């Protein structure tokens, strides 16, 4: 669909490509869009470097010592099961070596083997050593490397902006309405294309700060049908009682999962509820320096010394794989991929490629972030180069709606933010994994009750109102919870 040719509205901020998010997928998308000749704007509620604090799940899987990516592809399909999108798995796994080499050219310092080649770990689910990284700092270092590249390209970035509305017009994107957290103003930002690349919605099972899924929430509210929402992959290496997430890479450097009997166990057994511990006492000496952060974190939060103690494990959901269905170009699609929400793209944890099936292979989440970010950025820039802005009328309508919505949060009626967030997480824990219809009915009833009660903000100020931000996050997670329960019922 070609946008109706109108003049760019005076006084309204307008961009070729608008990228929502601050993690590797968003940064990679902005870089790719810039390299393709567009003028992208990165929008996030957090400052530069905030994404480097995301949980360290694992490194990046790539077939460096293999002649083809066929084994990596097969391992991905085996881990994900019959629901794996094999075309997506093939496309993304085949791009792994190229993406890792690009990061190295840009300055990423990988852990190295004695011969100088990247150190590769054989992690559960992989038939060969294939996961490269920077020990427990892969997320931080990849994020830092990509942020440097955005700065070199002088890519514009707006922090302290929380998108509250994705503006659509007859299945075509027009831009966003955002809350300027610092001033409290509600502002429209028009765009020829929008790339949704924000964090996942894992905070729905804990607290919004662990993953508010903002990009998916506003997309769902705009009528975008989400996919893969009924799959909740668990992370085995989470310290029981603390929620502290440890990278799975530990298992490729001498760490072992053990049952109470002392027998070795697999991550799948932890996720199935087996009582297990992580034993790092036999970790390779050469590896200790790469996991200094993990060792210190465990000691600070539990008092356990990994050199003499074992670590109790309890699986949690720390990353999500559901999102906006996308095609090979990163375009947001519907009607089984036959139709496109014109100008709308998604990447990373906001995209649903289907490559992970029921469970992601270690190292594939970061890989997917990079590949989908690159694809979406490039194609969004190409689309924007031949498109025109859609006009201000629709943006102004949605601005008025957003203002009214936010004003309603300051009503004396409704549940406090913290109470609503806790109620949502309590309800959602009932369907961590497969659930029967009776459990689903309980969850839906709880969600309906929370929705009917509403949410209220007690701080009357508008400037730097963090309670208001939390309320908007909780509203979004509530909408995602409704989408998850609906998809569970359909399936």
Produce the secondary structure layout:
Elements: E1 13-20, H1 24-35, E2 40-43, E3 60-61, H2 70-80, H3 86-94, H4 96-105, E4 131-132, H5 138-152, E5 156-158, E6 161-168, E7 173-180, E8 186-196, H6 214-221, E9 238-239, E10 244-245, E11 256-259, E12 264-265, H7 267-271, E13 276-279, H8 285-288, H9 292-302, E14 311-312, E15 324-325, E16 331-334, E17 339-346, E18 351-352, H10 364-385, H11 393-408, E19 415-416, H12 417-428, H13 437-453, E20 455-456, H14 466-490
Parallel strand pairs: 1-2, 1-8, 2-5, 8-17, 15-18, 19-20
Antiparallel strand pairs: 3-4, 6-7, 7-8, 9-10, 11-12, 11-13, 13-14, 16-17
Helix pairs in contact: 1-5, 1-10, 2-3, 6-14, 12-13, 12-14, 13-14
């Amino acid at each position: 669909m070609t946008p109706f040719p109108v003049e760019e509205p005076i006084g309204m901020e307008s961009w070729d490509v608008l990228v929502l998010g601050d993690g590797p997928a968003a940064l990679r998308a902005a870089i790719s869009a810039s390299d393709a000749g567009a003028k992208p704007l990165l929008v996030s509620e957090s400052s530069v470097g905030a994404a480097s604090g995301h949980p360290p799940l694992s490194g990046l899987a790539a077939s460096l010592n293999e002649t083809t990516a066929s084994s990596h592809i097969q391992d991905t399909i085996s881990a994900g099961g019959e629901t794996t999108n094999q075309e997506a798995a093939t496309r993304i796994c085949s791009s792994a070596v190229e993406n890792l080499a690009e990061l190295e050219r840009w300055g990423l310092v990988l852990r190295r083997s004695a011969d100088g080649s990247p150190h590769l770990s054989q992690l559960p689910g992989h038939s060969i050593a294939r996961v490269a990284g920077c020990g427990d700092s892969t997320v931080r270092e990849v994020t830092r490397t990509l942020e440097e590249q955005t700065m070199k390209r002088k890519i514009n970035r707006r922090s302290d902006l929380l998108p509250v509305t994705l503006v659509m017009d007859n299945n075509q994107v027009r831009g966003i309405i955002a809350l300027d957290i610092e001033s409290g103003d509600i502002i429209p930002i028009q765009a020829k294309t929008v790339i949704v690349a924000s964090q996942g919605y894992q905070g729905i099972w804990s607290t919004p700060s662990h993953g508010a899924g903002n990009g998916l929430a506003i997309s769902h509210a705009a009528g975008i049908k989400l996919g893969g929402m009924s799959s909740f992959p668990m992370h085995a290496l989470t310290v029981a009682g603390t929620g502290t997430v440890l990278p799975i890479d530990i298992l490729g450097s001498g760490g072992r999962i053990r049952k109470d009997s002392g027998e070795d166990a697999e991550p799948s057994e932890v996720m199935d509820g087996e009582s297990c511990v992580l034993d790092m006492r036999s970790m390779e000496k050469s590896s200790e320096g790469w996991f200094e952060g993990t060792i210190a974190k465990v000691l600070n939060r539990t008092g356990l010394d990994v050199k003499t103690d074992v670590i109790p494990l309890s699986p949690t959901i720390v990353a999500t794989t559901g999102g906006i269905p996308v095609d090979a170009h990163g375009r947001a699609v519907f009607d089984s991929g036959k139709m496109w929400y014109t100008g709308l793209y998604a990447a990373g944890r906001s995209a649903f490629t289907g490559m992970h099936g029921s469970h992601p292979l270690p190292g594939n989440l970061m890989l997917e972030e990079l590949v989908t970010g690159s694809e979406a950025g490039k194609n969004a820039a190409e689309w924007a180069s031949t498109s025109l802005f859609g006009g201000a009328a629709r943006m102004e309508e949605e601005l008025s709606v957003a203002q009214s919505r936010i004003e309603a949060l300051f009503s004396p009626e409704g549940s406090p933010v913290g109470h609503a967030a806790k109620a949502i997480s309590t309800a959602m824990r009932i369907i961590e994994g497969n659930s029967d219809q009776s459990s689903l009915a309980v969850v839906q009833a709880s969600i309906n009750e929370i929705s009917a009660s509403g949410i209220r903000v007690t701080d009357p100020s508008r400037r730097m109102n963090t309670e208001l931000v939390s309320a908007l996050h909780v509203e979004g997670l509530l909408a995602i919870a409704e989408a998850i329960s609906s998809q569970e019922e359909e399936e």
